[in-house]
Design goal:
Elements lengths: L2 H9 L10 H31 L5 H28 L8 H7 L12 H36 L11 H15 L2 H6 L1
Length: about 180
């Protein structure tokens, strides 16, 4: 491949036919990209605490935070691929994540283990609320879009979008275990 062909390919649009209006694709992609940024930010914060936890419950917290981090990281790929599936583009850099994230960083030199868990608990609860909000707002928009195409939502195969966010919500509700770890 020569340089001219490579340059042309880099400028080619990412075209994914979906049947959604362009504004619906844009709005849903924006909402999901904000979630991807939040998941990445929460992943990094969780790994930060995983690497720096100390104290008598080190092993339990270390393993808990490692598992939580793995789940957060795996979720980012699922959401980002969903953005591409509906024809949008997703995050391209750490800077892009930083511009969109709503999860606060914690760069403190030392955080007590209980403060780590309390902070992550609050971040997880806020992320669960954002997932619910995105689900409610965007699903209603998708229903309108499908109806404008003459398709009733019940005829949309498997309700992929709703199922995905619903399963995230179930997962987020399970994260209530933080309450027990802090009490």
């Amino acid at each position: 491949m020569n340089a001219t062909v490579a340059a042309a390919r880099r400028k080619a649009p990412l075209d994914t036919p979906t049947g959604l209006r362009s504004d619906a694709t844009r709005d849903i992609s924006a909402a999901l990209n904000a979630l991807v940024a939040d998941f990445f930010a929460l992943y990094l914060k969780t790994k930060n605490f995983h690497w720096h936890v100390s104290g008598p419950h080190f092993r339990d917290y270390h393993l808990l935070l490692d598992e939580q981090g793995d789940q957060l990281f795996a979720t980012t790929d699922v959401i980002a691929e969903r953005v591409r599936k509906i024809g949008g583009t997703t995050l391209r850099s750490v800077g892009h994540i930083a511009r969109l994230q709503r999860v606060s960083d914690n760069d403190a030199d030392y955080v007590t283990p209980l403060d780590m868990l309390a902070e992550l608990r609050e971040d997880n609860l806020r992320l669960a609320a954002r997932l619910r909000e995105t689900h409610e707002q965007r699903w209603d928009g998708l229903v309108r879009d499908f109806r404008s195409l003459g398709i009733e939502p019940v005829s949309v195969p498997s309700h992929d979008y709703s199922d995905m966010l619903s399963s995230f919500l179930r997962w987020a509700d399970l994260r209530q275990m933080w309450r027990g770890a802090i009490a």
